[in-house]
């Protein structure tokens, strides 16, 4: 008498695989949640003890001759590049 009892064994393997999958996904989600809250806490801690200094805007005085010299240099470089291409 030959019996095929593989069906019950296959069901157990599928249930075991499903259990491990759910367990693994739960661990990953738990780890990511803890990491997000830890990083938020760390950001607040760093912001409290090491505040960012406000940089005062520096006023740059534009020199007309300096701007024309820059424009002339740019035009010359572009013209030189075009001449090299042929």
Question: What keyword list fits this structure?
Answer:
mainly alpha; 2 helices; 0% strand; elongated
Helix-strand layout with pairing:
Layout: H1 6-49, H2 64-85
The coarse silhouette is elongated
The string of secondary-structure elements, in order, is: HH
Total beta-strand segments: 0
What class would the helix/strand composition place it in? Answer: mainly alpha
Radius of gyration: 34 Å
Strand content: under 5%
This entry's quaternary arrangement is single chain
Give your account of this protein's structure.
The chain has 86 residues and is mostly helical. It has one domain (6-85). It is built from 2 helices and no strands. It has helices at residues 6-49, 64-85. The mean pLDDT is 86.
Summarize the structure.
By secondary structure, this protein is mainly α. 77% of the residues lie in helices and 0% in strands. It starts with 5 loop residues before the first helix and ends with a helix.
């Amino acid at each position: 008498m030959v019996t095929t009892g593989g069906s019950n064994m296959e069901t157990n393997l599928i249930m075991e695989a499903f259990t491990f999958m759910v367990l693994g996904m739960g661990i990953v989600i738990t780890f990511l949640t803890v990491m997000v809250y830890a990083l938020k806490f760390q950001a607040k801690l760093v912001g409290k003890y090491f505040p960012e200094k406000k940089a005062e805007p520096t006023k740059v005085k534009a020199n007309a001759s300096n701007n024309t010299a820059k424009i002339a240099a740019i035009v010359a470089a572009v013209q030189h590049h075009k001449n090299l291409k042929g």
